[in-house]
Design goal:
By secondary structure, the chain is an alpha/beta fold. 49% of the residues lie in helices and 17% in strands. Helix 16 links the parallel strand 16 and strand 17. The chain is elongated and about 90 Å long.
Amino acid sequence: MFRSGRSAVVGRILVVDKVSVNRIVLRVKLSATGFDVLQSASTEAAVNLARQSCPDVIVASCDFQDQTAVQLCQRLRSEFGSMAPPVLMLCSDACDMAVLQGLQAGATDVLRRPVSDKLLLARVRNLMRRETRRRDLQARVAESGDMFATVAQEMEPPRARVGLVAPPGTSGRRNIKCLRRKTRHEIELLAPATTLRRADQPGHDIFVLAKDQEGPEPDLDALTELRSTPSTRHAAIVLVLGPHQIDLAHRALDLGADDVMLNGLDLDELALRLERQAKGKWAADCLRRHVGDSLRAAVTDPLTGLHNRRYGLNKLAAMSDHSAQTGRPFAVMIADLDHFKAVNDGHGHAAGDAVLKEVACRLTKAMAPGSLLARIGGEEFLIAMPDTQMADAETLAKELCAAISGRPYRLQNGSALRSTMSIGLALCDGQGYTQPMDLIAKADRALYAAKTHGRNQVTVNRSAA
C-alpha cells in the first residue's frame, strides 16, 4: 500500500514485543519482504506510534501473564473504534485457551509460536489487503462528508447467515446443533457440491469450509469459486484445518480466505471467529453501500430518479463516438413540457414536482432498452436512441408526446390537470464524431420551432450533423 510521504513499501507494520530479540527477528523477516516495520516494547508506546504512523497491521507478542497484548487491543479499540488496525497476536502459550483469550480480547487472529514464516507472511499479506480495501472505501466515504456509514459500522451487526460446508453425516449435524447454542447467527449445513451449485444465489454472509475428522481436507477450488462468483465474492470465508496443514493454510490465505483455524473444528473458537467475521462483513457492506449510493447520486436526478445532465452529456459523447466508429446513425431529442410555469404558479411547486415525476415515469415506460433518458433542466429532458433512423425516431417522438398528453395528472388535493410536451429531434448520421453540445444545440433549434408553431408537437431538424 502506498501513501504520500512514505517510501515505496508494500505496507507498514508495527511490531510490539517487550523482548528486543523477538522484535529484531520479526523486523528482519518482515523488512525482507518490503514492509516498513516499526517497533515498540510497551502498550503505551505502541498506541502512540499507531496514532502517529497509522500502521496497516500490528503484530503483537501475546503473554497472558502480563496482559500486554490484551491491553493493547482494548486501548486500540477505545481510541480508534472501527478504524483500529488489525492485530495479529503471536502466542507462546500452547494451550487452546490462549487462542480463545486472544480472540476475546479483540485480536484479528492468534498464531501459536513457533510460527511458520510462510504462514506468518501469508497472514500479514492477507490482513494488509483487507485493511487497504477498508481504508480505500473509508476514504471514499469521507470524501462525501456523510459519516452515516461510519456510525453504522459501530452498531451491532444483524444476525449473519452462515453456511457450514462439510461432508454430510452424524458429526456434521451434531456440530451444527452445538454451534447454534454458542452463537446468535443462523447456521446451515451445506454439502460441498451443494455449495458450488448455490454459489450464484446470494444469501450467505459467511462460509465455513470444514474438514470432517476422517474426511478429505477442504477443497481450495471451492474457496476460489466462492471468491470469484459475483454473489458470494464479498462473503467471509473461514477455513477449518488441522495443526499440520500449514502449507494449505498459507495458500488459502493468499487465495482470499478471510480466516483460517489450525486447531480443527473447535466450536468455541469458531463461534468467536464467526462474530468477528460478521462484524467485519457488516462494516464493509455499510461502506460499499454508501459508496454505491454516492456514485448513483452523482449521476441521478433526485426528484425524478432519471439520469442527470452530467451523466447525459457523458453518455451522449459515448454514443457519438460509437456512431463514428460504426457508421450507424442515432437520434437525439430535447423534450420540454409546455407552459410548465403555469403549473407551478397555479398549483404550487409540490404539484409541479408530482407532474415531473409522473412525466419521467411515462417517458421511461415508452423508451426502448439501451436508450438514454436524462433530466437536463427544470422541465427539460434529453433523449437519445442508438442505431436509429429518422423515421423510427420521429414515430417514437410522437408516441412520447401522446403519452404525456393522453391522461390527466392527478394531484394530492384530488384535482387533475393536463400537460403537453414539445420535442425537437435531430439525427447524427454517423459520419464522424459530433460534440454533445452541438447535437443538443441542433435538437434545441428544432424544439424552438415546435414551440413557435403551436407546441405539443414534434419538429425535426434535418440539417447534417
